[in-house]
Amino acid sequence: MRIEYSKRFTKEYRKCPPLVRAAFKRRLQLFIQNKNETLLHNHQLSGNFKNRRSINVTGDWRALYEKFDNGNAVYFVALGTHSQLYKT
């Protein structure tokens, strides 16, 4: 599986706390092994985010991504707390 990161994701990753960065690395390994691992709570989003999916990084932190290349690749587009990502 090919994994790519947007500029926004990379910037948010660099700015987040070290514990969240470490948690993302662990969750990414789980994601690579099994996208449907229950700890990830991988799910399709709706509304303004209908083409994106979300995985849990920590209790409140999420990573948003989009699938492309017939599902053989993912593009992580955002990283943040639930309130940061889904504010209206």
Automatic annotation (TrEMBL):
The keyword Endoplasmic reticulum does not apply. It comes from the Bacteria. InterPro entries: RelE/ParE_toxin, RelE/ParE_toxin_dom_sf, Toxin_YafQ-like. Pfam families: YafQ_toxin (PF15738). The keyword Cell cycle does not apply. Keywords: Toxin-antitoxin system. This is Type II toxin-antitoxin system mRNA interferase toxin, RelE/StbE family. It comes from Candidatus Falkowbacteria bacterium RIFOXYA2_FULL_47_9.
